[in-house]
Design goal:
Number of helices: 4
Strand content: under 5%
Shape: globular
Helix content: 55-70%
Mean pLDDT: 88
């Protein structure tokens, strides 16, 4: 739910996505995807810091955290479409259903 996304979180994601789009418009693919990698790192740090699994958190707080992360996931999935279109489409489908599914098969070492 967009209404549950915190303003500061949305601004950070949107600012990064704007930078990504600017770099893509200049055909600076390495810089563009560095922005997305940094944004996904931010998401990893955010979920670790906010720990929505902690039972002491209020339901409204957990909803905001998860809404923020869903927003980030939707934006980064869109950004990855040009380089991994099949996986990005699959990820979009999974997010829409909000059900877990394996995106990539595990590569076994020989």
């Amino acid at each position: 739910d967009v209404k549950k996304i915190s303003t500061s979180f949305k601004k950070k994601v949107d600012k990064s996505m704007k930078k990504f789009e600017d770099e893509m418009d200049k055909y600076c693919l390495d810089k563009a995807y560095k922005v997305i990698l940094d944004l996904t790192d931010y998401g990893n740090e955010y979920i670790t810091k906010e720990a929505p699994w902690e039972k002491t958190k209020a339901k409204t707080v957990v909803e905001e955290i998860l809404s923020n992360l869903l927003y980030l996931l939707e934006k980064t999935t869109d950004a990855y479409e040009p380089i991994i279109p099949v996986s990005a489409k699959k990820a979009r489908t999974i997010v829409a259903k909000l059900e877990p599914e394996i995106l990539f098969e595990k590569i076994e070492e020989k």
